Amino acid sequence: MIIVMGREVTDAQIAAVTKKLEAAGLKANISRGVERTVIGAIGDERQLTPEMFTPLPGVESAMHIAKQYKIVSRESHKQDSIIDIGGIRLGGKQIQIIAGPCSVETQTQMDLAAKFVHEAGCRLMRGGAFKPRTSPYAFQGHGVEGLDMFRKAADKFKLPIVTELMDARQIDAFMEYDVDVIQIGTRNMQNFDLLKEVGRTNKPVILKRGMSATISEWLMSAEYIAAGGNHNIIFCERGIRTFETAYRNVLDVTAIPVLKKETHLPVIVDPSHAGGKAWMVPALSQAAIAAGADGLLIEMHPSPCDAWCDADQALTPDELKKLMGTLGAIAGAIGRTL
Ligand code: PEP
Ligand code: MN
Predict the structure, then answer these.
(1) Which tens digit of pLDDT belongs to each residue from 46-84?
(2) What is the mean pLDDT of each run of 10 residues along the chain (338 residues)?
(3) pLDDT of res. 66
């Protein structure tokens, strides 16, 4: 952290800043210039906040210089991390496509969906048993019963399951049904207590970007999970809110290379919740893979027009199969495998 002192700073004001730094176990490096005096904090500055210094007399500004995220940062781990999901690798050269319905509806729907996910060549399956819905009157998901249907359907094709955790009280059920990947949804990206709880598990976690979250807030949320000991984190860009109303969200493709630079952890994209319409999904998926995404989370329903949730954005089984073909070609062109 550096603390910038104003033009007319006094020795007593510099001493007060130094004392505060020393009380926190850091040392002060004072550089007196003609215009300004800059005090550099030497030591672990992560415990400091600018607000500890800005109210002090003579202080003009204070700012962090080290990154606030440590474990998830590329600085701490140069190589790309590969997440092992029951023997299926996500990250590195390998691209993984996770597909399935928005929500778990019936055993028949899940059995069919699992078959189509497998036939399309995808190695992991998604489906929500606990659904975060805008309206309290909309279908909220089947809960634990949904986990049971999901597990049964996916097991027939040995597909690891990805499903959303909304509340720490659901963790025991997630363990009982041996959920392979815990999804943290956009609405919970900054539910810090929930992040701490998943940080205590050893399950891979897909951390979706908050719909209005900055990259740095997103990285800090991942750090919450990592700080608890769970480093199996996958970032998922799912579109952000902007002034545009022509589509559900804006897919932030720029976030892919930026995150890949900032973190060693894999980055996937959800083109379904970004565009919000099935016809946009192939174009957004292709853009994401071309831009360096390590995978996709795609909504596919055996019969989209009958879907209980997000019917507009679900691909048909045939559309998913066709998309897998084009994605394979893009992956090959950039030296990766699908
Ligand atoms: C979902 O994946 O079904 C979902 C609810 O996504 P998001 O949290 O991105 O809205
Ligand atoms: Mn959905």
Answers:
(1) 889 999 999 999 999 999 988 889 999 999 999 999 999
(2) 94 97 96 93 90 96 91 96 97 97 98 98 98 97 98 98 98 98 98 98 98 98 98 98 97 98 98 98 98 98 98 98 97 96
(3) 82
Tokens of 296: 């996709």
Residue nearest ligand 1's atom 9 by CA: 186
- Ligand 1 atom with minimal separation from the 128 CA: 3
Half-sphere exposure of 317 (CA within 13 A, CB side): 15
Cβ–ligand 1 distance for 301 under 6 Å, the answer no
Instruction: Give the residue among 227, 228, 235 at the shortest CA–CA distance from 258.
Output: 235
Please give the Cα distance from 119 to 33 (Å, whole number). 68
Q: Which of 98, 111, 55, 54 is nearest to 236 (CA)?
A: 98
Contact 185 CB / ligand 1 (< 6 Å)? yes
Pocket test of ligand 1: the residue of 183, 190, 236, 297 to mutate, having most ligand atoms within 8 Å of its CB, is 183
Distance CA 269, CA 298 (A): 9
In whole angstroms, give the CA distance from residue 159 to residue 337: 19
- Give every CB contact of residue 310 below 8 A, 6+ residues apart in sequence: 102, 103, 272, 273, 299
Whether the full predicted model's pTM is greater than 0.90, yes or no, is: yes
Ligand 2 centroid vs 137 CA: distance in angstroms? Answer: 16
